Structures are given as structure tokens and as C-alpha cells.
């Protein structure tokens, strides 16, 4: 890993619809708004991001594998796969770079099936319930955690 490498901002299923449906649950900010926050935050640290979204589990896993050699850290909102995907969790374990899991909503205050994330125990940190501001917090943490100090 070098700080030349971007921070991968990975988003799972349905997050492309953020801000377009169910604003009472997910707020009115869009995924583009979240990505803008990440890009601006990274730029403040002289860093860049690589933002991707997929509705397909295998595609997300392929991108995580790719991140082993191309990313300096990973912000991931796994969407519903947080609660179901052993395969996604297994892929994240292989990463040597830090990982922060983000959820727009407070999953612990929602339905019981959302209160457990298979990803949380393999992430370096978890942010939930802060809306899209959680993406900013996660990006800032990764910029600071992976900064070269001299
Ligand atoms: O709170 C989060 O960020 C979630 O990861 C969002 C996921 C949900 O399955 C997780 O439990 C928590 C859902 C993604 C957004 O789904 C939408 C569905 C309809 C309209 C807008 C977004």
C-alpha cells in the first residue's frame, strides 16, 4: 500500500437508489452526495478515492480482491449483504489495508435481522446512523490511519 493508492469507496445493493425512495428511513442525500463528501475529504489530505457501486455480490467481491493491490483503504457500505454474505466477509478478511464499514442508518435500532452485520467483526471500524456524514467520517479516519508520517 502507498498513499498514492486511492481509498476504495464500495457500495452494495440498492444504494444507487439512496435519496430517491424512503427518505424517512435513508434521508434525502444521494449516493453521489456521499461520494462527493468522500472525494472532498480525501482531497483535504492530498488523497483520492475510487467510488464503485454494484447490486451483485460477486462483483463486489472481485473489487475487494482487486483492492489488495490497488487501494490504500476501503470504505464499504455492504447494504443488505452486511447481514447475509459470508463470502463478502471472507473477501474482506484477506485485505491487508484498513476497512471501515458504513451504514447510513442505525442498523441497531432497526429490524432484528439488520442488527447483526457479518462484516463488522472483520472491519477496523464501523460507523452507522450518521447518514451520509458517516462516509466522510470513515474517509477521514482512513486518510489519517494510512498517512505517511515523518
Ligand atoms: O443503512 C444502510 O446504509 C444500509 O446498509 C442500507 C441498506 C440496508 O439493506 C441495510 O440494512 C442498511 C439498503 C440500501 C438502500 O436501499 C434503498 C431502498 C429503497 C430506497 C432507497 C434505498
Structural class: alpha/beta
Please give the CATH architecture.
Answer: 3-Layer(aba) Sandwich
Gyration radius, in Å: 14 Å
CATH topology: Rossmann fold
**Secondary-structure element pattern, one letter each:** EHHEHEHEEH
CATH class equals Alpha Beta
Q: Which superfamily, in CATH terms, is the homologous superfamily?
A: Dehydroquinase, class II
* Largest beta-sheet characterization: 5 strands, parallel
Number of domains: 1
> How many individual helices?
5
Mean pLDDT equals: 96
Question: Low-confidence spans: pLDDT under 50, at least 5 residues?
Answer: none
What are the distinct ligands in this entry? ligand CA2
Question: Span between N and C termini?
Answer: 17 Å
Structure report:
Helix 2 runs parallel beside helix 5 and helix 3 runs parallel beside helix 4 (86-93). Helix 4 links the parallel strand 3 and strand 4 (99-103). The protein is globular and about 40 Å long. The protein is of the alpha/beta class and 150 residues long. The protein has five helices and five strands, in the order βααβαβαββα. It has a five-stranded parallel sheet with strand order 2-1-3-4-5, with helices on both faces. It has one domain: Rossmann fold, CATH 3.40.50. The model has no long low-confidence stretch (mean pLDDT 96). The structure holds ligand CA2. Ligand CA2 binds next to loops.
Amino acid at each position: 500500500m502507498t498513499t498514492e493508492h486511492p481509498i476504495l469507496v464500495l457500495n452494495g445493493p440498492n444504494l444507487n437508489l439512496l435519496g430517491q425512495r424512503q427518505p424517512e428511513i435513508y434521508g434525502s442525500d444521494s449516493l453521489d452526495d456521499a461520494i462527493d463528501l468522500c472525494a472532498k475529504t480525501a482531497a483535504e489530505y492530498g488523497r483520492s478515492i475510487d467510488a464503485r457501486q454494484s447490486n451483485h455480490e460477486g462483483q463486489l467481491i472481485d473489487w475487494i480482491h482487486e483492492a489488495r493491490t490497488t487501494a490504500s483503504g476501503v470504505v464499504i457500505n455492504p447494504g443488505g449483504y452486511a447481514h447475509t454474505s459470508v463470502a463478502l466477509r471472507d473477501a474482506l478478511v484477506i485485505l491487508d489495508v484498513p476497512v471501515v464499514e458504513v451504514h447510513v442508518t442505525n442498523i441497531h435500532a432497526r429490524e432484528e435481522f439488520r442488527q447483526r452485520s457479518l462484516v463488522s467483526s472483520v472491519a477496523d471500524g464501523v460507523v452507522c446512523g450518521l447518514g451520509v456524514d458517516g462516509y466522510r467520517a470513515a474517509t477521514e479516519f482512513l486518510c489519517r490511519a494510512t498517512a505517511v508520517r515523518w
